Amino acid sequence: MGFLDRKSLIYLAIIVALSVALIAVCIDAYAGAAAAPQRDTPDDGLKCGQASVTTASGSFVDRKAFCPGELLFEDNFDTLDLDRWQHEHTLGGGGNWEFQYYLNHRDNSFPTFIGLEPGGEEYLKTGKLDINGGDPGNFCTNPAWDGCVRTGTPESILNPVKSARIRTAHSFNFKYGKLEIRAKLPTGDWMWPALWLMPRTNQYGTWPASGEIDLMEARCNVDYRDEEGTHLGVEQVLSTLHFGPNAWTNAYDTSTAPKNSASGQGFNKDIHRYQLEWTPEFRSSAWTVTTSCKWMETFGKEATLTSELPGREILGHQLVLP
């Protein structure tokens, strides 16, 4: 068996940290030629002769076989469908000691400071946050990294920004297909909008052993540059794969790529299309600015951490949208 076997699924996880303006999300079944996978149910009732290799599960999925190119999941965000998108509720973030914490509240689709907490700035250094709620919508969703209860200190202040993170962990998970998200980046400091795909089940262990696909991440600073003058704020987006036995051997640096817009034409100026094509053979990402930038990773030469990192199976299980 490879690093990730082909029986497992991925769910799409969109971390909308959350000032990104999401316009639409669309997922199609893989339309390429490939051997049909073994299925728990027959392909009876399909209008096509051969089922796609795409698999899907979740409350919004009513069958296990799909025609190539078939639309499986779509949301144009006319409203926020809470059956389709589940809110994270945690102080822990991703273990990076981020400045935001995630709440189940509509106002947090745009970050706000903890201005109503008693004590002001001093509260951040000495106060305590306990976000355990009494009903399912307010249960803490991740206790890791002091995610449910946290006390501020001068060295490690409380998260001063409220934000949001939504995912399809219960409603939609898939393996193989074409994903397109149309979105416009926000503008401002302390913002890191992200569109991620995360494992539905950590079949091979905790992060990053079971993989992660970052379709798009960005910093939203208006003028943030490195020493060479390269813009690292709203004029740059990144796409990355995370994989490896543990966090210390995460091989993301072998599978990451930035894309910069033309000067003065940042990704916060207009709506752009962020695309992922994921097949049994490869994964490619594309961002549209004025033209399309596309790159491919097969991992055959880069994934040398262990003998169980064959290129085609590193992300062979189902992902969820955060």
Write a structural description.
Keywords: Membrane, Transmembrane, Transmembrane helix. The chain has one helix at residues 121-126; strands at residues 10-13, 21-28, 55-57, 71-75, 86-87, 100-102, 112-113, 128-130, 149-151, 161-163, 166-167, 173-175, 177-184, 194-199, 212-217, 236-242, 256-260, 272-278, 283-288, 292-297, 319-321. It is mainly beta and 322 residues long. The model is unreliable at 1-8, 15-19, 35-41 and 287-316 (pLDDT under 50).
Brief account:
The chain crosses the membrane at residues 9-31. It contains 1 helix and 21 strands.
Order of helices and strands: EEEEEEEHEEEEEEEEEEEEEE
Q: What is the terminal separation in angstroms?
A: 27 Å
Helix coverage percent: under 10%
Structural class: mainly beta
What descriptors fit this protein?
single chain; mainly beta; eight-stranded mixed sheet; 1 helix; globular
Topology:
Layout: E1 10-13, E2 21-28, E3 55-57, E4 71-75, E5 86-87, E6 100-102, E7 112-113, H1 121-126, E8 128-130, E9 149-151, E10 161-163, E11 166-167, E12 173-175, E13 177-184, E14 194-199, E15 212-217, E16 236-242, E17 256-260, E18 272-278, E19 283-288, E20 292-297, E21 319-321
Parallel strand pairs: 1-21, 6-10
Antiparallel strand pairs: 1-14, 2-4, 2-13, 3-12, 5-11, 7-10, 8-9, 12-21, 13-18, 14-15, 14-21, 15-16, 16-17, 18-19, 19-20
